[in-house]
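Could you join me in thinking about how sequence relates to backbone shape in a protein? To get us started, please write out a protein record for me. Would you write everything just below, so we can both look at the same thing?
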Amino acid sequence: MGSVHSYDSAKGRRYLVRYRKPDGSNGAKRGFSRKRDAELWLADVESSRARGEFIDPKAARVTINTLGPGWVESKRASMKPSSFAPVETAWRLRVQPTWGRWALSDIRHSDIKDWVGKLSKQVGATVTIRTFGVLAGILDDAVHDKRISLNPARVGDIPLPRKKKRTHRYLSHEQVAALARASGSHRLLVLVLAYTGIRWAEATGLRVRHIDFERGRLRIEDNAVEVGNRVHLGTPKSHKSRAVPVPRFVLEHLRLHTSRLDGDALVFAGRDGGYMRRTRASEGSRSWFKVALKEANLALMTPHDLRHTAASLAVQSGAHVKTIQRMLGHASAAMTLDVYSDLFDDDLDSVSIALDAAASRSGVLNLFSNEDEAPEQRS
């Protein structure tokens, strides 16, 4: 059990609490102006020890600067480079400068709420939510380590901005043809992106041996993601390989394009023979993709919009949502429906039209005779 002792200070008599920590070491807390307060604090310590909820006051004096780097490094090991980069940036540019010197015990819910409010006015919703997640994640670890009893970022209401759903750009078959024609030596790449829906990094990581010419499939096994000035080769975004169907006309162009390449060669290599760098479509860019868009008389879009185009063309062809899910590598058909819900709006009309036609053939429409009609209908 602990004990309470009085001592003299410049401010008069004060009380010191000595207590035993769960690990057997001794702890002390001084500065109580009333003996009753010291006794209540000691009773709370003893009670929290018995419940296994003891929080060492010294442990709560640790700063975010102390815990943050370890938390960030743990994410590096579990995340793909392209996903880790914005998390590291959020820590380095927004969390550490603001919260680095704060002790865990000094951080209040209202402090975080005010910070999120100011942050949402400076950066977009995605960055705000990610940055908040970094601080909240560090504080989660502090709770698990029993440095603090509650995470001030997880209690109460902290309004986070809502992400605006980006409007997808869909090209028609004719527009895809115009874009491919204007892309010169990159026309086959445009066709592959627009008719298979594979991601840019999956296309640039594609090797000749990944093409199954007999079955008309692309085996998506590698992902060559550009992060900063480096290209990181890893697994696809879903961490799973998948087989993607290729239209016959695209497959024949791929056959001609790869006829003189060995199996390990990249299908779409850069000028140096290595991985192709991502083409830009920003306002100030003079990339081949942006030039091709202008020549094809198409509005500004990104190469990723060709993935959306592939989904649109597949829906128009009558492909089942499960097939589209597998083609795009989504985790579930529900995710495909959520991302491309606008593409399935016409299905509602198709259902009613199909039911009407089926009912007509079955004779259901003749079920009611004039004698069976309601009085108001006869009148």
